[in-house]
Amino acid sequence: MDRRQLLELLERIASGELAPDKALQDLVDFPAARLEFAHLDTHRLVRRGIPETVFGEGKTPEQILSIVDRLSGTGDPVLVTRISPEAADLLVSRWPEARRDPLGRTWSMGALPPAGGKQILIVAAGTSDLPVAEEAAATARFLGRTVTSAYDVGVAGLHRLAAHREDMDKAGVIIAVAGMEGALPGVVAGLVSVPVIGVPTSVGYGASLGGFTPLLTMLSSCACGLTVVNIDNGYGAAVAAHLMLGADVGHGDAQTR
Fold this sequence. Notes:
Blueprint: H1 3-15, H2 20-26, E1 32-34, E2 39-41, H3 44-48, E3 54-55, H4 61-72, E4 78-81, H5 85-94, E5 99-101, E6 106-109, E7 119-124, H6 130-142, E8 147-151, H7 159-162, H8 165-170, E9 171-178, H9 184-189, E10 196-200, H10 212-219, E11 227-228, H11 234-244
Parallel strand pairs: 3-4, 7-8, 7-9, 9-10, 10-11
Antiparallel strand pairs: 1-2, 4-6, 5-6
């Protein structure tokens, strides 16, 4: 339930069109739905304009199924990140119309309405960075954003990035994903006037230290204004980009796509 839906419900009660006890049925799981192993924040779409996302890693397929089943009952769109193949198979068997992205390890049912405005460009240094880049792309699309991408354009061959200059100029926010030494976000941030979000990945040989080296490179960048999220956090980068572009907390009905 978003702010607009909640307002309509209150207006119907105030006008006498809807009895309070009937309205209570729509609010039984609001602002939180309680399961044996989880408290689901069904107020988040009203509060932040973004529904609660299910982080799949560490949860059993059965737990994820129960959470998604309860969240879907609210009418809000549902996104699961870091989902295992086993859990995704279970959800697909229940909701075959939903969207599954094996590379980005996401599963979603429905989406927020198209947000309009400028697109989000996602650039990735190497093909090995694609799982994180695709998590960001799937999340941004779930949030109603238009996404374009340029993959395998790292600093080992900067002419590859230059070929996407037109996309960079059209973007409202750029998400730059890189492992190894993590230089790509700083390079991009030095070329454009829009916000750039760096996403360090855990890709790389030993001295990359599981993503700490690219993380420190991005945090130490000379390019001013570069924003950096946690290692492998494509989801967090997409949400930040969505908010930077101006998220409408008063979203209307979610639509299935």
